[in-house]
Amino acid sequence: MKLRLVAAERLKAVLGGDHFSPLGTGELADGRDRALANRLITTALRRHGQINTMLADLLDKGLPPRSGSFEAVLRLSLAQLVFLPDLGAHSALFLAVEAIKRDSKARHLSGLMNAVLRRAQANSARYGLMDDATLLPAAFAKGWTEAYGAEAVAGFAEALVEGAPLDLTLRDDDPELVEALGAERLIADSVRLESRDRPVEALPGYDEGRWWVQDAASAIPARLMVLDPNKAVLDVCAAPGGKTAQLIKAGYRVTALDNDAGRLERLRQNMARLGYSPKVIEADAANFDPATPFDGVLLDAPCSATGTFRRHPEVLWSRNAGDIAGRVRLQRALLANAYRCLAPGGTLIYCVCSLEPSEGEEQVDWALDALPGLELAPIRAAELAGLEQAVTPRGLVRTHPAMTPGNGNAGMDGFFVARFRRTG
């Protein structure tokens, strides 16, 4: 019962707009309970679109208003009944009813909960055969089909259900460590763990700072900063520090900039574990004015994060056109100031973990028009050995969740990368 209540509380918060983060030992001490609760939550989130279809079929009058934990408990229970049958139908019904009886705002709906779930149980086979097209919001599916094609979008739906493996960036080339991790090599210094039986902090090499967590797509932008050793590079919106670590590893003098004190503290902790010492500055990236311009600037701009839906499925349902338009305006302000921070002849890398062309390709057109002396420095396919298909004819990089890095599987995050050079 505690597991169910804790899971419902977390799912309710995410449905209300919070960012999803897995339950930790503070919420559920027992590892098995924690794993099960996280499985229930993530299944409910990944299957959100299909559960929406089920709710429309099961609730003639829709979800009751001001009903406390009713929706969260119902979604968890539907996820268990239809998509996790190994957990048993009886526990789904019994625990759902008992859970909302403990909520003063929902207990009057216990009869409705029981009736809805019994009806769902009777129709579970039919619900289990629902079209995968309902997994993705219609607006996103339409736009992505136009941008990437129907086959890729079908792969997006599969990637959403499968979730993301754990990708790591190695500090040093270390075949013995790769073997100890049980990992496979992807591209460059990225490796992948398809499965693991322990927390990240318990994996070989963690305490010694021999790797850091970083999706294979997220590791691409910093590799495209091609400067002479010891050049000064500014990492904008740097926390939690994966790209900062890559730039230091490449031999640059790195300044890590972010406006969030909490995230910067996490960056400092990560750098300490890795044995790296960047200069760290807390400031607003839109107004930062360095005394001396930088030879390189890497801007991983705040964005809709739609490319991360394998790990954060909630972004599919919490983003709308207005949100994305606001991100586009912010990105342009940050791009303009990143350009001002760049010395003549310097390199600017712009990237976002978004699948939206308005945050990627269209921002390139804006920057080239609005920022005098800025030109594209096209990325060559040879620079992304093992992922040549991600390089567009224009010399930009576009990855998506149906794209496979190297010989790996399970896809990768959706990322966009452009490289510019300031000529004057």
Automatic annotation (TrEMBL):
Q: Name one Pfam family in it.
A: Methyltr_RsmB-F
* Superkingdom of origin organism: Bacteria
Q: Which UniProt keywords apply?
A: Methyltransferase, RNA-binding, S-adenosyl-L-methionine, Transferase
PROSITE patterns on file: IG_LIKE, SAM_MT_RSMB_NOP
The record lists S-adenosyl-L-methionine as bound by: C237, A238, A239, P240, G241, G242, K243, D258, D284, D300
Keyword Manganese in annotation: no
Active-site residues? Answer: C353
Q: Name one GO biological process term.
A: methylation
Give start and end of each Ig-like domain. 278-343
Molecular function via GO:
methyltransferase activity
The family database entries (InterPro entries) matched by this protein are listed as:
Ig-like_dom (IPR007110), MeTrfase_RsmB-F_NOP2_cat (IPR049560), MeTrfase_RsmB-F_NOP2_dom (IPR001678), NusB-like_sf (IPR035926), NusB_RsmB_TIM44 (IPR006027), RCMT (IPR023267), SAM-dependent_MTases_sf (IPR029063)
Boundaries of every SAM-dependent MTase RsmB/NOP-type domain copy: 128-423
Q: Known PANTHER family for this protein?
A: NOL1_NOP2_SUN FAMILY PROTEIN _ ANTITERMINATION NUSB DOMAIN-CONTAINING PROTEIN, NOP2 YEAST -RELATED NOL1/NOP2/FMU SUN DOMAIN-CONTAINING
By sequence similarity, the record places it as follows: Belongs to the class I-like SAM-binding methyltransferase superfamily. RsmB/NOP family.
Q: What is this protein called?
A: Methyltransferase domain-containing protein
List the top taxonomic levels of the source: Bacteria, Pseudomonadati, Pseudomonadota, Alphaproteobacteria, Hyphomicrobiales
